Amino acid sequence: MAEYVELCGTDDVPEGEMRSFTKGDNEVLVVNLKGEFYALDAICNHMGGKLVKGRLKDNLVICPVHRCRYDVTSGKVKRGAGFLVETFSGKCGDQKAYDIKVEDGKVYVKI
């Protein structure tokens, strides 16, 4: 059964930035967009790139390996190599997005 676990403090992820945290077997990317926090799998599901080494542009994180863009608010693949790969091989798709809550300066994700 999935439950919320503490992942980090809100101060650990400055506004407009992203950080990666490990909790158990999960590596989670936390993004702070204008004070709102979002969480995705930190490892690209296509080629295994560490998304924290990519670039954040508006609400999109760009994979450093194949430049696919994922919407951090939903995990949906939006643009880039992922569309071609998904169409022809079925291997690239949306990133897992975690349910998240923020309480008392702490970020929790449902794992």
What's this, in brief?
With 111 residues, the protein is mostly beta strands. Helix content is 8%, strand content 44%.
Short key terms for the protein model shown above:
mainly beta; four-stranded antiparallel β-sheet; globular
Question: Could you describe the 3D structure shown?
Answer:
The protein is mainly beta and 111 residues long. Helices cover 8% and strands 44% of the residues. The chain has one helix and eleven strands, in the order ββββββββαβββ. The strands form three sheets. The protein has a four-stranded antiparallel sheet, with no helix packed on it. The longest helix is centred in the last third of the chain and has 9 residues. About 5% of the residues have low confidence.
What is the gyration radius calculated from CA atoms? Answer: 14 Å
Q: Assess the beta-strand content as a share of residues.
A: 35-45%
- Rough shape? globular
Average pLDDT across residues? 89
Low-confidence stretches: 85-90
Distance between the termini: 8 Å
DSSP helix fraction: under 10%
Largest sheet: 4 strands, antiparallel
User: What structural category do the secondary elements indicate?
Assistant: mainly beta
Query: Going across the major beta sheet, what is the strand order?
Result: 2-3-4-9
The number of helical elements comes to 1
DSSP summary, beta strand count:
11
Series of secondary-structure elements, N-terminal to C-terminal:
EEEEEEEEHEEE
